[in-house]
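Because discrete structure vocabularies remain unfamiliar, we reproduce here a specimen of the format, pairing a chain with its fold in token form:
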Amino acid sequence: MNISVMPKIELHCHLDGSVRPETIIDIAKRDGIHIPSFVIEEMKEELIAPLDCESLDEYLEKFSIPNAVMQTKENLKRITFELFEDAANEHVKYMEVRFAPLLHTRQGLTVEEIIGSVIEGMKEAEEQFDIKGNIILSCMRTMPSERAFEVVEKGKIFLGKGVVAIDLCASEEEGFCAKFIEPISLAREYGYRVTIHAGETGIGRNVLEAVEWLGAERIGHGVYIKDCEEAYRVVKDKQIVLEICPTSNVQTKAVSQFRDHPLYEFHREGIKITINTDNRTVSDTTMTKEFNVVWNQFDMSDEDYRDIYKNSVEASFAADEVKEDLKKYLLGS
């Protein structure tokens, strides 16, 4: 199977972790933004996290430079457009991009202006390339819960117009879900779908709480359900979908090396998994690379590929008619 030409679905990709290094340099030169270097190879060293990161927190340090150039409507629109263009060029047919609007207010943009600019970039890409998309609004777990209410309230006018879901991300602490029950509950009332980063850094119980307390329909990563029997059972029984990001999981030390990843065991035992990049630039990856890593490390078949593709389509927050069109790509592959 030639994975490079196969249709793909991506459900877990961060905008600020997927900015082209060339674009960062170009914007920094034009806007007078200080960055460590204007030499592309040197910038890549600043932006790409090594496989031997010590932790998730070290991995997250790589996001400060991209965010510096993501503070105007023009730049946000351009960066979003380019991400969808890059995905379309490797046969990604549908993509959900997530980002935290509150990280882009340094130069006075409103949350509404920020979300609107990202949607504009996505819509423009949809018009030019064979790809569809939606946006997920991330709330930072490191911020007070009041800020999550702000994102939920200001983002609701975009529901059905490009925004589909709410997310919690950033450094993971045990028991974080308790702090965000009210804002996520309000988001569900408004019609947001829910996906939560949990179980990435050794705390499987966070996945259980994300599902039971926050109503998570999908879990970002979820690797550590392997060490929490109750979380494992709930994910399997309720068919909660895991957004697996293999390279990122090695970098953040969710797993020590690719062959130790439990994704294939999950898949064989009936847990629904999807394969994703997490951050194309920070992890120096693509969907093609991620699938090739998985296929090289595990005994995966063409049927496994089809199962994961179908999982991804069905777990997506796309409209039903879009899902039907996405299923047709697989039939024709």
Notes: Residues 125 and 317 are 19 Å apart (CA to CA). The radius of gyration is 18 Å.
